[in-house]
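Internal ticket #5521
Category: modeling
Description: The requester needs a full-assembly model to guide mutagenesis choices. All entity lines are attached below as received. Residue total reported by intake: 511.
Assigned to: D.W.
Attached entities:
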Amino acid sequence: MKHFAYTSQELFIFSVKTFAAIFRRPFYFTETKEQMYLIGIGSLYLVILTGIFAGQGFALAFSNELADFGAKDYLGRIMTIAIVRELGPVLAALMIAARVASGITAEIGAMKSSNQINALKSFGIDPIQKLAVPRLIALMVMVPVLTIFCDAIAIFGGYIIAVFLAHVSGTMYFAAVKERLIFGNLFIGIIKPIVFSFVIAFIACYKGFTAEGGTKGVGKATTESVVLASIVILVVNFFITKLASTYLKGYL
Amino acid sequence: MIEIKNISFAYGETPILKNVSFSVGSSESVVVMGPSGSGKSTILRLILGLECPQTGEILVDGKNICHLREKEKQEIRKNIGMVFQDGALFDSMSVWENVGFYLLEHSNLSIDEIGKRAVEMLGFVGLNAKEIMDKLPEQLSGGMQRRVAIGRSLLSTAPKAMLYDEPTTGLDPQSTENVLELISKLNRERQIATIVVTHQITDAIGFAKRFIVIIEGEIAFDGSLEELRDSKDLKVLQFLAPFRLSFNEVLKKEFFNYT
């Protein structure tokens, strides 16, 4: 319990420091661009695969249920609500956490264990500014972009199932999709990935900077980073959904 | 230049340094020796302000580094070159980017100019720049990596002090000699205060005029090579015992060099 409280406090302080560092000079544009490329392009195939199969699976399951009630035409509506508000942001964030958080923690952890972090400090460079901030900014930009891709692909996956297996007309499906692409759903769908990007960046960088015990320690920190980021994403997702259902009721 | 006053330091409950005091003047060269785990490397980390002692103070150019803000610490660190154990080169950067790292980060010089200076520095530390400048650190031998690390430290603002953490550990005899020669040359020609931390006593003997032996976190000896040889302190004798033969050989060599 004491350890949990201490770690939470340290993580919080680290997060505040990292966030504050966004607004301080120098800005590492080259590193930020490089991270955007690595995170964005590198995770794209993963997000596409996740989106298409999740969308298809979801559409398949629901088309059968809706058929029993003669409400197959509602498939597009259900898909939009489920994908844009919940599945898209969560699945994309979990995939990015698995791929990117592990990479960030391993890289920073390895730099720490080989004294490269201390070397940075000895050259008068703030490691948070140089290593954590570019990754945070890259995630803040790329997680929402990848989530939009994931949403679009998942809805398209639903379209394939709707047209070829559930025999819903494509026009009807997209009309239903369009009907539910309203402010409230889109707002939740974009706020969630932004919050998740903070979760992934803070946890992955913190675990990297605090990794101890050589190669074994870096491996342990990497695993912890992915597990913790995934759990926090799911917990935070619940609370955002709860808050949204309370305060955005009129917009959903 | 560097004053360490009555410092005690512990990692959690484990005491590392106990009431350690010594000072190093500008252009002075000091070797800090001791068995593994005796707290030698910790001293270098404390001098850089990477850690702060629980008691006592560390003054660099008269300023207590632990009382400074991070920004001010960064300014102090710019005057101290540090060569970490194993070099600590940035493994995702090429050799010339490593050597020119400080200038890439802190100057407005063009890439071409920084590249030129990096090449000059690589030449100064005895490396063939054309052959290695575009390689990654992992493609170099241990000795070459150590020399690149020294070059990287020197190409910052001309450092007033150089700290070396186990600069010859893991190197073959030829590379060891090259690195030690380079450290001596820098101390001699540039009048830079030098602290070398090592547990390889045979390398340290022929290098400096002043030796500090740290055993179990305490200073067991601080003096010249001759005083070290004649020390009657039991802990020092125990530490020196395995090296006694080579120790005498170096002393003999020194004697013949002077006569």
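Resolution: model delivered.
Comment from assignee: The CA atoms of residues 76 and 177 of chain A lie 5 Å apart.
Ticket closed.
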